[in-house]
Amino acid sequence: MPFNNQPTQHKQVGDTPVLVASSPTALAVSDPSLAGQFLLDRQGRILEASGKICQLLGYDCDELCRFDLRSLYLDPQLLDDAGLFRAQRDTAETITSLNCQLRAKNGALLSVRLTLIADGGLVGGASGDQLLAVIHTVEDLSLALQDGQTLISHLLAWSRELQQANSYDDLLRLIQHEMRERVGYNHVWVYTYDNMYSDSIHILSIGGENKDMVKANFATIPVRGDRFLEEMVSTEVPLIIEDARTDPRTNKAIVEQLQNRTMIMIPLYFLGEKRGSLGIGTFGDAEGCRPPGKLQLDYIVGMTGHISAAIERIKFIEGMRDNQAKQLELEKKLQQSQKMQAIGQLTGGIAHDFNNILASILGFAELARASMGQSGGNAKLPVYLDEVLVAGRRARDLIAQMLAFSRGTNSEWSMINIDPIVSETVRLLRSSLPSSLELRTELAKNLPPVKSDIVKLNQIIMNLCINAKDASNSVGTVAIRTSRKVIEHGSLCISCGAPIHGDYVTLEVEDCGSGIPQDILQRIFDPFFTTKEVGKGTGMGLAMVHGIVHEHHGHILVDTQINRGTKFTLLFPVGSLDSAQLLSAKAQTAHVASAVATSTVLPRILVVDDEVTVARFLRELIQAHGYEVATETDSHEALAAFQSNPDDYQLLISDQTMPGISGVELCRQVKKIKADCPVILCTGDLGAIPDQEIEDIGIQAICSKPIDTRNLLQLVQQLTGTVPH
Amino acid sequence: MARVLVIDDEASIRLMLKETLEQDGHKIVEALNGEEALKMFGLDQFDLVITDLVMPRKNGIDLIMDIKHQAPNSRIIAISGGGGMSGRFDYLPIAELVGADAILSKPFMLQELKDTVSQILAPAS
Predict the structure, then answer these.
(1) Comparing A19 with A157, which gets the higher pLDDT?
(2) How many whole angstroms separate alpha carbon A557 and alpha carbon A441?
(3) Contacts B88 to A, Cβ<8 Å
(4) To which CATH superfamily is domain A151-320 assigned?
(5) Residues of the domain holding B34
(6) Whether residue A522 has pLDDT greater than 90
(7) Are A707 and B98 in contact (CB < 8 Å)?
(8) CA A180 to CA A178: how far, in whole Å?
(9) Residue-wise over A579-598: b if at least 16 C-beta within 10 A, else e?
(10) Nearest-CA distance B93 → chain A (Å)
(11) Which of A121, A122, A112, A118 is nearest to A132 (CA)?
(12) Which positions in chain A touch B98 (Cβ < 8 Å)?
């Protein structure tokens, strides 16, 4: 009898399972495959049938209630054999689920999945004496196809679709659709393995309602110690977990969290190698446990061959995309660094000519101005000439800044604490900035020293503060902070594009001004780039900051928000780390050099002078005569380089007056390490070092300043016993 | 009043130096490059040499070394617009290294030049 239409002595059941709330196996209302349910007694007799199943089988409800379930069942023996109806259950629980075929009134066979549930007294009658049979239709795969299409031709057509997918998500969508339409599962996911003996697996893609949560929590899962995953990784055949809650292999905590029910894991092979697993399954009480039938499983396995090929294809494409992206990123960085270098070189090249031109312009303007005073003449001429002088001086200052950018200026490097420099610079600036702008300093205590040039440090603080003033229209606060930061991988320098990593002393200048638009952020360090009105900015300020900071082996970060403000963070490597890096680089250079030295005829000479230009000049000079020359501008580093590879050097030429270790002391240390290494000491003050000391140390020659390079070369020749080229 | 040898490959610079120093009563002799200057130095006596550094033929560094070799007590002021012959580095510090008594970066104010000249000549006068 149809439910809900006629009164009945039996408790009525609808099409939807009555045990939804309490039964772990009851199925969702929305499940399209749900065909209805029977209420049975312990003998298997149908007590009630829901409307939909009556319709599907072509019986009315009263007719069905005369039947034993076995009489509808194609192979009634199966049910008896299982002894299902005899089993006594006191609580509502699933007894079994099995695929079978029911015979309709017209003789047709209906493929169904039948789930027997002990009602536990929840439906009606005495506890444990009734059973609920929940019926799901299982589409017959071969019957589901239309227009006489065979399963194979359908699979091939689907495979062609798969090969069009260009992303894992596209691919998964296609798999999910096919799995739902053809096999009846809503949830699909793909694991990949690091290798065949993987310690962890990665979710490549996942579909279904839980996908975001699973992706967030289970993107990578360790395999070892998880029986289910270990078996999944090692097995060569499909792994089917009918009910994840009761199967001893599953991790119950995960099952509880994800609400897994049936899990079907099919190995994905590509060219004989296992690359991952395709997962199919049901989740939650709404879907319940639904292991696949044989035909379903065969079809899923058939799908996986094509899925493996499609995954490999996408991996290949993504790999290409990744490489392309990396290549582009690299090119961008290279371009930025080349651009800065080229500008530096160009600036260095033209500065000399410009200075000569300006020397004439300014010189003659001055001469003209002076002669005007003497001879009288047109009263306006002195005014005009003053303008020429003002403009000329501006050009001169600009070139000086350009040279600072191109690192062409001389430096006085020493290990300093930047805090006092910052305080002093800010103090000087205060008097020249409008009082409407507050300069606030927040200095860290006990900063480690950095190798720096005070004048240059001063220049960059001034520049950043003046920019901050302009950006905030001279109103508000400019904060100047110092601190120490260890920066791990991840940040890139905004001006040179290099990755930043290490221990830094930072100097921040932050304003609450107009901010810098993203589209010009990459250009702000370019020489001559300015957003200020003509005549108000040279466009060299930040270019100079870039030059100086990088001369310190430092980097720059910029944090900016439109109308909120901008923060420039300058990073200066902490002294000791810098030296350590240099030392290790030197050890490598020395190693290479020693390999080279064996094939060169003339010896290797170490030139030490704290003045970079002089060191480079001497290197060029001596190198031009065929010697190999290494230069150092820091006496400590020179000693470290010599110490790490004393046999690489056959001569030391050292300046006397240097910060750190003096020339005499350096010679003494070098002699201690390698007594037979000849040394030449260059000094402008011969009398300052006692002859006895020179003799005691064993200094072979003193080269007095001013140096006559011919004398120096002769000394080199004599002390190394060589004939220069 | 001193005899000053002025060496610069740019005529305008030579003229400017000449005009300026003549205002203080110095006698100026000009040379176009280091080679020419060295010849003149051998033929005449000078109280002061003012030389550019980046020049064709003989450059200023070589010239300073040659002059100091010939006459170690000669006084030399090096002037340069920065940069070097190879464009790789600034020659002014090297000029000091090889014996220049003073250096001046171009462009300079004429008073700076005059002051430097007076300062260098002072011990002798």
Answers:
(1) A157
(2) 19
(3) 616, 620
(4) GAF domain (3.30.450.40)
(5) 3-119
(6) no
(7) yes
(8) 5
(9) beebbeebeeebeebeeebe
(10) 7
(11) A118
(12) 706-709
Which of A347, A354, A355 should one mutate to test binding to chain B, selecting the residue with the greatest count of B CBs within 10 A? A355
Using alpha carbons only, give the angle A187, A193, A194 rounded to the nearest 5 degrees: 150
Q: pLDDT, tens digit, for every residue of A36-56?
A: 888 888 777 888 888 778 888
Distance of CA B30 to the CA centre of its chain: 10
Task: Indicate the DSSP class of residue A686.
Answer: G
Most confident of A40-49, A122-131, A244-253, A580-589: A244-253
CA distance A267 to A232: 8
Angle between helices A380-405 and A541-551 (to 10 degrees): 30
Task: Pick A34-138's CATH classification: 3.90.226.10, 3.30.450.20, 3.10.100.10, 3.20.20.190.
Answer: 3.30.450.20
Architecture of the domain whose range is A585-720: 3-Layer(aba) Sandwich (3.40)
Please judge whether B82 and A359 are an interchain contact, meaning their C-beta atoms are less than 8 angstroms apart: no
Check B98 against A708: CB less than 8 A apart. yes
Q: Give helix A709-720 / helix B60-70 axis angle, nearest 10°.
A: 80
User: Do residues A602 and A627 make contact, with C-beta atoms less than 8 angstroms apart?
Assistant: yes
Spatial distance between the Cα atoms of A567 and A533, rounded to a whole number of angstroms: 22
With both helix axes pointing from N to C terminus, report the angle between A294-375 and B110-121 in degrees, rounded to the nearest 10.
70
CA distances from A237 to A98, A159, A196, A267, A535 (A): 21, 21, 15, 7, 78
Q: Does B83 sit within 8 Å of A396, measured CB to CB?
A: no
Please, which pLDDT band fits residue A209 given cuts at 50, 70 and 90? low
Share of chain A above pLDDT 90, in %: 10
Q: Could you say which of B13, B83, B109 has the minimum Cβ distance to residue A408?
A: B83
Residue A472: strand, helix, or coil: coil
User: What is the pLDDT, as a whole number, of residue A23?
Assistant: 36
Interface test with B, best of A356, A360, A397, A710 (most B CBs within 10 A): A356
How many Å from the N-terminal Cα to the C-terminal Cα in chain B? 9
Is CATH 3.40.30.10 the classification given to domain A413-573? no
Q: How many CB pairs under 8 A join A and B?
A: 107
CA A28 – CA A48 distance, rounded (Å): 20
Which residue is it, tokens 């319709």? A55
Find out whether the peptide bond into B107 is cis, omega within 30 degrees of 0: yes
CA-based end-to-end distance of chain A: 116
Are the CB atoms for A519 and A417 separated by under 8 Å?
no
